[in-house]
Amino acid sequence: MVNLPWRKKQEETYPVMDLKKHIDDVFENFWKSPFGWSDSASLMKTTDFNPRVEVTETEKEIKVTAELPGMTEKDIEVTIDDNTLVLKGEKKQEEEKKEGEHHYTERRYGSFYRSMLLPPNILSDKIDASFKKGILVLTIPKEEQVESRKRIEIGT
Known about the structure:
The protein is mainly β. It folds into two domains: 7-38; 44-141, Immunoglobulin-like, CATH 2.60.40. It has helices at residues 10-13, 15-30; strands at 46-48, 52-57, 61-67, 76-81, 84-99, 102-117, 128-132, 135-141. The strands form two sheets. It has a four-stranded mixed sheet with strand order 1-6-5-4, with no helix packed on it. The N and C termini lie far apart (98 Å).
């Protein structure tokens, strides 16, 4: 075969072949373990969990909604300090399977820490927090904003 400069390598020309190789590897590795995991150590690694948070604001309140699937209210800590709202928590899960002679344990762990600066006119002692079906909702009331800018007359 003549090597022509405008002709690409086979790997570049046929990306489907590369995909086929990856699929073949997946099926080959599937049978190496009774539960389909080729590297069980990789299942026990620590990962960061970054929950989705939505913040909306009206004249009267700020509403913070966080999606925390698989967690309970005991896994979550909500604090407020100097108008900084902090959401943090840990998600731990352990699964164990026994099938005949095979014993399989999978552990997952994730933690998160989210903080956000709130305006100075919030009423931190009247914050309402609820948690239902993995959704945390914080309703933070605001007091009427007082004009913080004041003109000072200069005397002679």
